[in-house]
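R.M. (postdoc): so does anyone remember the format we settled on? I'll just put the structure tokens first.
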């Protein structure tokens, strides 16, 4: 809890885009295809992104911390996939 975490993400495809999303918070750093899209909250330090959008075969990373203990689901933001069970869980302890 409170520790900064980096998630490396790859859209392995083969043909659909993916938007990595952790339910219950925002990423303050977003890096895709060799460039920062958002770093440390942007110019104000308070910015954030809900997703890391990737086309097939693209990769990147996002960073965030979890202010509270709990279970945070993550999805590709294709909700039909989530309904079919494509959901992971990040468990954050005290």
């Amino acid at each position: 809890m409170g520790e900064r975490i980096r998630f490396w993400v790859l859209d392995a495809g083969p043909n659909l885009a993916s938007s990595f999303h952790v339910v219950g918070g925002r990423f303050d750093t977003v890096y895709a295809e060799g460039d920062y899209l958002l770093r440390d909250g942007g110019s104000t330090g308070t910015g954030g992104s809900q997703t890391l959008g990737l086309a097939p075969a693209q990769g990147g990373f996002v960073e965030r911390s979890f202010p509270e203990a709990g279970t945070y689901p993550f999805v590709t933001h294709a909700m039909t996939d989530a309904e079919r069970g494509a959901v992971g869980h990040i468990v954050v302890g005290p």
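R.M.: ...and that's the designed sequence above, right after the tokens. Also worth knowing: The mean pLDDT is 92. DSSP finds one helix and eight strands in the chain.
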